Amino acid sequence: MQVLFETRDPQAAGLRQLAVSRLQFVLRRVRWLVPRAIVRLSDLNGPRGGVDKRCVVELDTDGKGKVVIQAVARDWRSAIDNALGRAARALLRLWQRSRQPGRASRDTPRRPPALPQA
């Protein structure tokens, strides 16, 4: 799995190793499904403080589309952990949904119920 880390914030740049190792730990069981992941950290309102640290996790999957999750928190670690937890759950749901056999899509018309014979 290729992991890309992007940030413009100098404080967040020091969290590269933490974000990459947490991502690899969280996705250890479904690593085969994700060939590429991007972690983006940004500070929404600069040095003013508050709940403004954003972590965006983008997972490219093999044939199942993209999973993009965003989390905003007071500190970087919480934002990273929240986004990675939600991304893992979303990826697991996507994988389980694709494995269910015979699931009708919304585009296929359903047959009307059979009328009783008199």
What does this protein look like?
- The mean pLDDT is 84.
- Helices cover 33% and strands 25% of the residues.
- The protein is built from 3 helices and 4 strands.
- The termini are far apart.
- Strand 3 and strand 4 form a beta hairpin.
Tag the structure with descriptive keywords.
single chain, 118 residues, alpha+beta, four-stranded mixed β-sheet, 3 helices, elongated
In short:
The chain has helices spanning 10-13, 16-26, 76-99, and strands spanning 2-7, 36-43, 53-60, 66-73. The chain has 118 residues and is of the alpha+beta class. A hairpin with a 5-residue loop joins strand 3 (53-60) and strand 4.
Shape: elongated
- Tell me the total number of β-strands: 4
Mean pLDDT: 84
In angstroms, what separates the terminal alpha carbons?
A: 63 Å
Low-confidence stretches: none
Topology:
Layout: E1 2-7, H1 10-13, H2 16-26, E2 36-43, E3 53-60, E4 66-73, H3 76-99
Parallel strand pairs: 1-2
Antiparallel strand pairs: 2-3, 3-4
Helix pairs in contact: 2-3
